[in-house]
Amino acid sequence: MSSTPSELPQPSAPEPLRGRSSRRNSRSLAQQLFDQFSTQIRDGDWIAGEKLPTESELVRRFDVSRTVVREAISKLQTAALVETRHGIGTFVLKAAAPTAALRSPLEWSEPINVLALLELRTSLETEAAGLAASRRSPQQLDAIRRAFDAFNASHSAGLDTAGHDLAFHLAIAAATSNRYFEEVLGHFGVQLIPPTHHDMIHVPERDPEDLPRVRREHEEILLAIERQDPDSAKAAMRLHLNNSRERLRKAQAQYG
User: Fold this and answer.
1) TM segments (predicted)?
2) In a shared domain, residues 171 and 143
3) Which CATH number does the domain housing residue 69 bear?
C-alpha cells in the first residue's frame, strides 16, 4: 500500500534558507529534496496519479524556502516523474516502459551523442516548425506560448528550465498535426535538451548568457509560428538548433 504524503520521511534536518543569499546552498537542498522524492516515486511509495503535497505544506514540513521546493519539483518534471496541472497540483506520472531503443541519461550526456542528436533534430524540427506555422490551431499556438512563458518564468526564478524547453519543442511538433513528429521527439524525452541547458546532469558552469539567448531564439520561433510564416519559422528553428550545437561545442572545447 502506498504511503500518503504525510508519511514521507523528512530529510536530515536541512537548515532553513530564509535570509540567505547563497544560491549554492539553495541548489544543494533542492537536490536533497529531489533525490528523496524521486526515490519515493521509483520505490512505489508514491504511485502514478497520486497528488504531491502543496508547495506550502512542503515548505513547512522540510523547513526550506519556496525556491528550494520549486526547484526540486522542477527537477522532478525534467526527469518526467511528475507533471504540474496549473490550478490543480502536481501529480506523479506513470513510469515509461523501458525499451531497447532508449539509452540512459548518462549515455546521452556524452557530448558526441548529444551533438549527433542535435544534427538529427535540425533536420526534423526545422521542417516541423514550418508545418506548425502553416497548420497550427489557436489552441496549439496557446500550448506553444504557455511552454515559452513557463521557460521564461523558471529562468527568471533561477529554476531548471529543461522540462519547459522540452515542452516548447514538443508543442511545436504537436502543432504539425502529424503525430509522427511528436512521437519521434517524445521518444527521446528530456534527452533532447543539451546538458548545458539544465542541471539534471553535471556539466561545467555555463555561460550566463546562454539561457537568455535560448529565450530570444524561442521567441523568434514562436512569433513566426504565430504570424503563420513557414519560411521564417524554419529559419528561426534552424538557427536555434545550430546555435545550440555551437554552444555545446564551445563548452566541450573549454572544459574538455
Assistant:
1) none
2) yes
3) 1.10.10.10
